[in-house]
Design a protein that fits this description.
Layout lengths: L2 H17 L8 E3 L3 H25 L1 H7 L6 H26 L7 H8 L1 H5 L15 H25 L6 H29 L14 E3 H7 L1 H8 L3 H14 L1
Antiparallel strand pairs: 1-2
Helix pairs in contact: 2-3, 2-4, 4-7, 7-8, 9-10
The structure holds protoporphyrin IX containing FE (HEM).
């Protein structure tokens, strides 16, 4: 990341500590500061609005119940590109905020190879080398980066369709719709992972914190980096306490 982007990001994080607070209790760790939560939920709101208005435009069947929510068909069509633009703007800032911890490494390559064990909950702990984000979370992030760029380019070409040639606009429709379907699939998996599949994760985006147990279970290398303690020892201690009860 360039120095000016990094400076901007640090200033924004600092400014947001004055806007909201994060209370960290005993046995908890700070996971997502106020700035990150603000960006995440802004991205989510504009993503959902874009998705709803986009699907309403795409399918006449959905028109019937979605378009009245936005003031009718023509207004839904008018609002969709603006929601999309705002989604891209907020995600751009989230990109600057997260690009460093989202860097792809050898650890992520190994994580992807063993993804089956993660999905089936076969192992009680993540591999000890898994840091702040695991390979699956990084894949989702980079899929949004690619889709965000595709949405922007194809969206502008469809918006100003008198500037581009007819076949360029036609291809833009196909790419835009495919990117939306990819994002919808990712979004469904993301909600499941952030709530039901990983209890204790959702609160990290609400009040900003997670329990230490959650941290050594899902992100052992991050737990080690922030506490200086061994995640496996914490796991074994917990197992022993459970057996003694
Ligand atoms: C509306 C329902 C949503 C819920 C319940 C939700 C929940 C969460 C939670 C709990 C985290 C933190 C995970 C962690 O700290 O390990 C997170 C992270 C993240 N969210 Fe969401 N989110 C939602 C919508 C979205 C949308 C619409 C997007 C973008 C299109 C998005 C993009 C991300 C990304 C890129 C991350 C970081 C990587 C990851 O954890 O997968 N989220 N989300």
């Amino acid at each position: 990341m360039s120095t000016s982007a990094k400076n901007f990001d640090e200033r924004a994080r600092a400014a947001f500590t004055r806007v909201g607070t994060t209370r960290i209790r005993r046995g908890e760790l700070l996971r997502h500061p106020v700035y990150t939560r603000f960006l995440h939920w802004s991205v989510a709101i504009f993503f959902i609005l874009s998705l709803l208005t986009g699907f309403a435009i795409y399918s006449p069947w959905l028109f019937q119940w979605i378009t009245p929510l936005f003031g009718g068909g023509p207004r839904t069509r008018l609002l969709h590109p603006w929601f999309g633009l705002l989604f891209d703007v907020f995600f751009f800032f989230q990109f600057l905020n997260w690009v460093a911890p989202m860097a792809w490494t050898e650890v992520d390559r190994r994580w992807v190879r063993k993804m089956g064990r993660y999905v089936t909950n076969e192992a009680p702990l993540e591999a000890e080398e898994v840091g702040f984000f695991n390979g699956g979370q990084k894949l989702y992030f980079w899929a949004i980066v690619v889709s965000g760029v595709l949405f922007l380019i194809t969206g502008l070409l469809m918006w100003f369709d008198d500037v581009a040639g007819r076949w360029v606009v036609a291809v833009s429709y196909v790419i835009h719709d495919l990117a939306a379907l990819l994002m919808l699939a990712g979004f469904i998996i993301h909600i499941y992972e952030g709530t039901a599949h990983q209890p204790g994760t959702f609160r990290s985006m609400m009040d900003g914190t997670v329990t230490e147990n959650w941290a050594w279970t899902h992100h052992p290398a991050w737990y080690r980096a922030v506490t200086g303690r061994d995640p496996r020892e914490a796991y074994e201690r917990e197992q022993q306490q459970l057996e003694e009860r």
